[in-house]
Q: What sequence folds into this?
């Protein structure tokens, strides 16, 4: 900008020549700051005052393009887009926050996977992005959470955010355990659909015991065993449970030519799966990801100071 009257400098020492008026109109933060007398700066660029910011050049380049009637430069990665949102919130650019979210949605960023979900959660937590924090916390449940899996993401975390995520995962795990334990005992509707299942080895009949048939009992017990390793393995995903159930049923039918379970599934299996999916989804959705650590593990008021 040849007629710029201020220089914005990134943390990696890249200078952006912009207009005070553009900054002030888009940001109450900059409006208040620039309305005050500015100290003399021996490092001025072409006699223009410098404002040094903590964001890198990539984030600032994206942010500053949104101040002018030119095509916006939106990052191509999800975590960089979160950093851009954090910067716009930090500098109180309300209108630009909405534009960034709209740009992100229109770009249809691929959903982060693996360690990237934990990095997204850490960035959103650090920047106070509550909705993005909640979303990414739930994405982390599909992946292991150990120090071995997250060596590159740990530096992004603040201590309280890591503790919050641990607490969130524990609560989700406990709710899922309760849900699977409920399905292990199928006395009451809508669970008690499995009747007269007999296999070739035990002569088992579900009507004799009031419990699920052995293949289904094994299916649920295996999910409980996996939940016992809630940090070293992913948590069960409600969207995958139907496929896993069908594989267990198919193995049972193939091994024992069980006509009774085939008939039960044909008549009522879809409703049973939907009930299982809904209950598992509710078990997770009822757990919030916000401020778990600070609410549950806050030190007593009169604890001695170190």
A:
């Amino acid at each position: 900008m040849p007629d710029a009257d201020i220089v914005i400098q990134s943390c990696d020492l890249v200078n952006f020549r912009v207009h005070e008026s553009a900054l002030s109109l888009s940001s109450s933060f900059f409006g208040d700051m620039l309305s005050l007398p500015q100290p003399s700066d021996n490092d001025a660029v072409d006699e223009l005052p410098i404002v040094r910011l903590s964001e890198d050049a990539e984030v600032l380049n994206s942010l500053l393009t949104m101040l002018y009637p030119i095509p916006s430069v939106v990052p191509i990665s999800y975590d960089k887009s979160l950093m851009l949102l954090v910067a716009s919130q930090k500098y109180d650019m309300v209108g630009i926050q909405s534009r960034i979210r709209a740009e992100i949605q229109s770009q249809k960023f691929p959903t982060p996977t693996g360690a990237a979900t934990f990095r997204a959660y850490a960035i959103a937590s650090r920047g106070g992005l509550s909705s993005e924090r909640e979303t990414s916390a739930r994405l982390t449940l599909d992946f292991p959470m150990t120090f071995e899996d997250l060596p590159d993401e740990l530096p992004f975390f603040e201590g309280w955010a890591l503790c919050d995520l641990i607490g969130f995962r524990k609560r989700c795990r406990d709710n899922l355990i309760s849900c699977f334990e409920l399905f292990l005992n199928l006395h009451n509707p809508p669970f008690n659909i499995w009747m007269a299942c007999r296999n070739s080895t035990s002569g088992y009949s579900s009507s004799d015991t009031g419990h699920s048939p052995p293949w289904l009992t094994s299916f649920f017990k295996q999910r409980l065993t996996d939940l016992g390793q809630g940090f070293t393995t992913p948590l069960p995903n409600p969207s995958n449970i139907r496929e896993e159930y069908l594989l267990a049923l198919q193995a049972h039918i193939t091994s024992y030519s069980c006509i009774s379970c085939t008939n039960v599934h044909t008549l009522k299996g879809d409703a049973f799966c939907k009930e299982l999916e809904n209950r598992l989804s509710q078990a997770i959705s009822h757990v919030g990801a916000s401020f778990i650590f600070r609410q549950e593990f806050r030190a007593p008021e009169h604890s001695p100071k170190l």
